[in-house]
Amino acid sequence: MDTITNKNAGKVNGFPVLLFIIALLAFEVYILRLIALTDDPNGLWLFFPVFLLIILLFTGFTIVQPNDSRVLMFFGKYTGTLQEAGFWFVQPLTEKKKISLRIHNFNSDKIKVNDLHGNPIEIAAVIVWRVIDPARATFDVQNYEQFIAVQSETAIRSLATTYAYDVSEDDKASLRGNTQEVSEELKNQVQSRLAVAGLEILESRISHLAYAPEIAQAMLRRQQAQAVVAARQKIVEGAVGMVDMALRALSEQHIVVLDEEKKATMVNNLMVALVSEVSAQPVINTGTLYS
Description:
It is built from seven helices and ten strands. The protein folds into three domains: 12-98, no CATH class; 104-211, Tetrahydropterin Synthase, Chain A; 228-275. It is an alpha+beta fold and 291 residues long. It starts with 11 loop residues before the first strand and ends in a 16-residue tail after the last helix. Strand 3 (68-74) and strand 4 (77-82) form a beta hairpin.
């Protein structure tokens, strides 16, 4: 396949040519008036060629707005691209295809795909893109906007299968926990697929991420269980530290001397009071320490 290279098209300012056409129209009026006064039809031999020239010149005008472009083709041959804003005159009978250089958003549909662990998830993304090579966007792909949709969906599917939905002990990254890293990799994957069409990816990010409905409840219960276990671990770690601090303070300040059996009893009581979800009910000992 031949690759088209974007190049600047030949052009001139359209206003001088427009003034020239106005002068030709005035000349045409003069010819018609002369024919009417002299009743001599030979002037038509000059009138019709000039009239055809005026029509031909009108086909060369084009207006380019900011962040816009025109891809020019002359009888099937690419002749260049206009990207500078203004009123221009190019070669007559040239086909002018408008290609916008503005920034666009592409919102993908929700895609159902399996993550790294085989769990079905729903994922969607937003792709921010623009055309940087109008010639390649025109000639190297059939429809560059449709091309973006298909290739972006393919990249999203590929990305989702390489990451787990949520992080676990064996995973270093996840779709939910490493959004910046995932977005950057998605951008690189989409860019590598769309470079052939002369497109640039400015930003990509996941806009929707959820477990598929058929496993959503089960995965929610698993997440809740993991959260409870993690919270319990923190509570136990804190309780152990507080018990150690209490025993050390009692020993260093010589408040009371405890043998190993009493230490074990005290540790048991403190751990129950600190770790239990139910508020502990204090028991006042009115006797001796060993009663």
